[in-house]
Amino acid sequence: MTSERSVKQQSPQKSSPAIALVLSGGGARAAYQVGALRGIARLLDKDVPNPFSIISGTSAGALNATGLATHAHRLRTGIRVLEYIWGNIQSDQIYRLDSAGLISSASNWVFSFLTNRGRRVPASLLDNSPLEELLRQVLRLERINANMEAGYLDSLVVTASGYTSGNSVSFFQSVNNIENWSRAHRVGIRTELRHMHLLASTAIPTLFPAVRIEQQYYGDGAIRQLAPLSPAIHMGADRILAIGVSGAATRRDPHPEQLVQPSLSQIIGHVLNSAFVDTLESDMAVLERYNQLLPYCTDQESLGIRPVKLLDITPSQDLNRLAEDYFTSLPRTIRMFIRDTNSSSIASLLMFEKEYCKQLMDLGVADAMAKREQIHEFFKA
pTM for the complete prediction? Predict the structure, then answer.
């Protein structure tokens, strides 16, 4: 068998083809991605720099993507930083848990819903100002440009959803000469990424407030993102490693005696769960079908099309089911909103508690190691 340390990588400017990492959204479930990255790092040389010339992230996946980009000079350092954050996280580092903050946020949300007024006040159930403070503490964004200039990274993409335009907007920072693009409900905008782009990408609708960037308000990037792989392809990816957070293949069908009318939190969780996981799975299926059909196209060069190799790592267990096991670790105020484990979808999004996140990271490591041969093959020059 191939040694786990036998895969060698050079810095991105020397590597060909262009390898992209795509990290999907999913709230607290994004801890799984960090574990999967740890498993991948075990298969590479110890001091290897970031092997991905393109990193694209959405929602909480955008936070992980940016964390890697700020430490692109050494892959394991970036992963260790993310492991430390996710391994010590608490919900009060993401959203306010004090009674005054929760009552104020809920009141603004209800008032906005009933009257459609007061739009100068953010309408959300939770106040995520602690997240903004956390991001400013742990993510030194000036390092992104320095790492790009040093050749450790070509492009970083953060996707958000425009509430006014209805478009999925991919904000990208790149050393390559890539122009803005516009497709049906999808646009790409070159910019220098800031913390506001990350807050916009993670602003889960109804839960966290929208973020204004120039002349538009933005929410979570998973909403309206019909083709999560497309930003990486626009940036020139020849190979894509996608880490999802669904575990859809492991979901359980309910027993008839368990059927009850869904609660509001269960309905919100269902809608958000669909946005976070279904589009990535669908887009991967489309890309695989596209690759299968390409050999029958005799004029690929003139048409500007090319095959894009894909490797995906997704949970082997149902993350919603795992969230049920840690339901009591949620803050009491959040449990009052969710109320029962039937709302495990939304619980798994808001379970920013270290015990649950460590469990997800362990699962990510195991799932990556289970694909060691595919990973070795993926990184071969």
Answer: 0.85
